Amino acid sequence: MTNGLVHHRELNLDGMKIFYREAGSTDAPAILLPHGYPCSSYEFRNYMPPLADRWRLIAPDFPGCGYSDTPEEFDYTFDGYTDFLERFTAKLGLRKFTLYLHDFGSQIGLRLAIRRPDLIASLIIQNGDIYEDVLGPKYSSLKAIWEKTPEHSFAEIRQGISQEEFQREFLNDVRPELAATIPPDLWTLHWSFMTDRRKEISARIIAGLKDNLEWFPRYQNYLRDHRPPTLIIWGPQDGYMPEASAKAYLRDLPDAELHLLDGGHWLLETNLDEAVSLTRSFLIRHS
């Protein structure tokens, strides 16, 4: 495989067509890149090439996202996606890798780490929340919805899934000068992937974030017990996960390397060069 080029691949995983992006040599140390919501592996399209000279980077589209299939029988929950990641990495023969944790991919990735700590060489954490006491103000509206009956909660979340809401998610709370550098491709492309079935799946995942709060202490216990080498790169202009959410990781990972960048939730769009440089420096020391 030619270094620096991203290859766009598909594999059959238990009857599902799974799309993934891959860069770097197959015998290089691996980095697994689970994406966030409402995105896909497209999130990592620019992050992968400059690191492919020394590492193998793999970014799958989760079932029901991006170019992957949306099978009816799949378990579209955090546990279901964890099962998927475990089977996907086994299919590719990955025995150990650096795990990138971002957005809802951080919840899924940490469940995999708890289940299979033998797979984890190190962590890169970027705007992924696991500390309830420092969640940002944007969570207030979600918590208000969660207080309603499950039926009404789901209906309200489902009604709110729109292209305009995708745009708000991608722009989040970044300052205007930075917002102007975030390409509209992010929300127009990912909205084009949304079918009625996928909107329903997304609504159930968002509703499931309430129960996922109960997992936060388990994620923290994993970090405290295993202490994997960890790089934290964070965009604090994030209404869901502000600066305090990043610093909270130091409670359980006091030796983690923390960098607060001038960016927001999707900092690979605005702070790519810094993120790549910090990743390279960290991985050279810990690969």
Explain what you see.
GO terms for molecular function: epoxide hydrolase activity. This protein has helices at residues 78-91, 104-115, 139-146, 150-159, 163-171, 176-179, 185-192, 196-212, 216-226, 243-247, 267-270, 272-286, and strands spanning 7-13, 16-23, 30-32, 56-60, 97-102, 120-126, 230-234, 257-260. The two termini are 20 Å apart. With 287 residues, it is of the alpha/beta class. The chain has a single domain (6-136, 214-285), classed as Alpha/Beta hydrolase fold, catalytic domain (Rossmann fold, 3-Layer(aba) Sandwich). The chain has an eight-stranded mixed sheet, sandwiched between helices. 41% of the residues lie in helices and 16% in strands. Strand 7 (230-234), helix 10 (243-247) and strand 8 form a beta-alpha-beta unit. The chain has twelve helices and eight strands.
